[in-house]
Amino acid sequence: MLNIPHDLYTAEQTRELDRIITEQHNIATSKLMARAGAAALTAVKNHWPQAERLLIVCGTGNNGGDGFDLARQALEKDYRIVVYQVGDISKLSIETAAAREALLATGTEVHTFEDTLPSTDVIVDAMLGTGINREVTGQYRTAIEAINSDKRAPVLSLDSPSGLHADTGSALGIAVKASITLSFMGLNKGLFTGEGPNYCGTVCFDSLKIPSSIYRELTPIARRVSLEKDAAGLAPRERTGHKGLYGHLLIIGGDHGMPGAARIAAEAGARVGSGLISIATRSTHGPLLNLSRPELMCHGVEDADDLAPLLRPANALTIGPGLGQGEWGESLFQKAVETNLPLVVDADALNLLSKNPQRHEQWILTPHPGEAARLLDCSSADVQADRFAAVKELQKRYGGIIVLKGSGTLIYNGEDPTRLSTWGNPGMGSGGMGDVLAGVIGGLLAQHFPLMDAACVGVTLHGMAANKAAEQDGERGMLAMDLMPHLRHLSNLIY
Length: 495
Hints:
Elements: E1 7-9, H1 11-24, H2 29-47, E2 53-58, H3 62-76, E3 80-85, H4 94-104, E4 110-112, E5 122-126, H5 138-149, E6 155-158, E7 180-184, E8 187-188, H6 196-200, E9 202-206, E10 222-224, H7 227-230, E11 248-252, H8 259-271, E12 276-281, H9 286-292, E13 297-300, H10 304-311, E14 316-319, H11 327-338, E15 343-345, H12 348-355, E16 363-365, H13 369-376, H14 380-385, H15 387-398, E17 401-404, E18 410-412, E19 418-420, H16 433-446, H17 451-473, H18 484-491
Parallel strand pairs: 1-8, 2-3, 2-5, 3-4, 5-6, 6-7, 7-9, 10-19, 11-12, 11-14, 12-13, 14-15, 15-16, 16-17
Antiparallel strand pairs: 1-10, 17-18, 18-19
Helix pairs in contact: 2-3, 3-4, 8-16, 10-11, 12-13, 16-17, 17-18
């Protein structure tokens, strides 16, 4: 996935790309289909070099035309192919009908799909692509069920897994579970968030040799984050640098029984380079936290008045890890919000915010889907059904920067393109991972990163560190503290 473009588009935008290519640059749709077929055949050769048999399932739109052209080219390379048609052939597009006829002219039979598919080495899904926006029914649903029931043959989906909404990443009732998704011309945003990663497998890309100038005619709706493009602030430090230059982060949290969350956030902020880290927590927790990490400055606070002197030397705040939703946490939250300091709002602070909604332009909110649902007064399912819409609504209501966590984390500041992270893995589904992210972003804010840069770089460092931890020891059993050495390495760009 790393060697694919950063710019992401809607399905409508990719259709506009196709129109510009054919009408303004005189590249015929049939030529694009031939190039798509060749790219698909190359993908088969690269990913499954031992494969001899291909089963290609074609729809009636241009996605089906790509499949028919792949079948014809595969025949020329001595593959054994079986082709199935799904859908009413009277509704074939002109170009798809021509590709089908060219295949039939080789003497190859195109079978009408009924309810089952034969065994094969590789299944190619060329049914619906990016053109579907309603629930899958009828023969298409049956065909998807048949593809998904084959647990042995890998699946190559062309453009997008059939049944996946290309804009939202939601399965429209059912979707093909691909091993590889080969996207053409423009990457669709829904491949990378929501349910998209569950269905797409590894995402690959082929531009079909279209002129690069064409992309300048469209503004991408989203853009993937990366250290290469976003991490100018992580450049090597000057030799005369000292802790006073690298900021003072104050972590506010750790109510009774929950000191660990604040401790995790504090070390994360330190590991990405904040010069000083203080923790405002319950008085009983200070000595305990200092035992495990003496570099942290721990202060007992029992009310908002105790917090006031700790706010003065700080230049960035992270509030929420282990904060609780009681009177103590609420008083500290309100005191923090009253400052004009840049702050990260996470965990219980988000739940407190949902009870007393307000706007602030200097904060970064980091909700997971459940917290986002409470902030929007809807269900988690509503949030996940269209994560792009949810993150925009959150920013509209609450201001600042919104980091909507989850598979395909989204970052939005009120202006397109929305930023999207493809880093991270399921091993991050354990307690404390959100505290790490809150601390990382806070640590970058303390180092004078602009809010949007801190959010984008923080999310990237967090996800990449988790991937490094998974490479080292696997996903299952990953703990939040396992990310710390990788955060240090990555923030110094030494991997």
